[in-house]
Write a structure and sequence with these properties.
Order of helices and strands: HHHEHHEHEHHEHEHH
Strand order of the largest sheet: 2-1-3-4-5
Oligomer: single chain
Radius of gyration: 27 Å
Largest sheet: 5 strands, parallel
Distance between the termini: 106 Å
Strand content: 5-15%
Number of helices: 11
Number of strands: 5
Length: 262
């Protein structure tokens, strides 16, 4: 065999080897992609089972929601629920069917964010009653209880000065860091001790601004002071059973507040 023939044979072998390696690499990439899709699908299924359509509310940008709320001023003069995901995830038509209430909750919102949107999202509606709940996400972002109390004070000041609404202030809900599985636990660095400190200041703020304090917290805690296991899947957000319990407590309070302003 001459030199040219040997070179051609070696070149063909190298080409076949490269083609073989390329095929194996392509197969590996496909298998990895399929596995990733399968894992993502499984994760999606788990989260959707827990949150349902609320899952999409978790990932929708807060700014987009605030802007959409600002553009919708059709429901004026009524009852407004104002807060974070614990408010946004509450199906008002289901749990407060006779109120015709407006939901102005935004998942992930802090009291700083609420102060930025309070005029366009709440005051602009000239509400008769405002049901407020906020502060737990501030703890997740490192705010102190003192800072949260200060912000809530500013929120109540704005609501009572700029509207004629009766303001109902819910206590912060407990959390449960022991909820399993841990990878689904959303408590992060929220602590019930900090929540208790904020809650302890709320009656005084309500007295100062002429608001109504609705102490929901005891209804949601277990014997250890944690959010009841049967009320949550992730230690932070509450389920339908919890919203039913909260509604049973809040509805008479809201009805009385509505009657007082009508």
């Amino acid at each position: 065999m001459d030199t040219d023939t040997k070179d051609d044979t070696l070149a063909r072998k190298r080409l076949r080897r490269k083609e073989f390696l390329a095929e194996k690499l392509t197969l590996a990439v496909v298998l990895i992609a399929v596995s990733a899709i399968a894992v993502a699908g499984s994760v999606f299924a788990v989260f959707y089972e827990i949150y349902g359509d609320n899952m999409f509310k978790l990932i929708m940008p807060a700014q987009s929601k605030a802007e959409r709320y600002a553009e919708d001023a059709s429901d004026r003069g009524g009852i407004v629920f104002f807060g974070d995901s614990l408010t946004e995830f509450c199906d008002l038509d289901r749990f407060y069917p006779d109120l015709g209430a407006v939901n102005r909750g935004i998942a992930g919102d802090t009291t700083d964010g609420m102060l930025e949107r309070i005029d366009s999202n709440v005051v602009a509606l000239s509400p008769s009653v405002v049901v407020f709940l906020g502060g737990t996400n501030d703890l997740h972002h490192g705010s102190s209880p003192e800072r949260i109390i200060e912000n809530i004070s500013r929120i109540l000041s704005i609501l009572t000065e700029k509207t004629s609404a009766t303001v109902i202030v819910q206590s912060l809900y407990p959390v449960n860091p022991d909820t399993k599985p841990q990878y689904l636990n959303f408590v992060a660095d929220r602590r019930n001790e900090d929540i208790a400190e904020v809650n302890a200041a709320l009656p005084g703020l309500c007295e100062k601004y002429g608001c109504i304090f609705a102490n929901v917290h005891p209804l949601l805690e277990n014997a250890s002071g944690l959010l009841r296991e049967d009320f949550t899947a992730d230690g932070l957000h509450v389920n339908a059973a919890a919203y039913e319990t909260i509604s049973d407590f809040l509805t008479p309070v809201i009805d009385e507040a509505s009657a007082a302003v009508s």
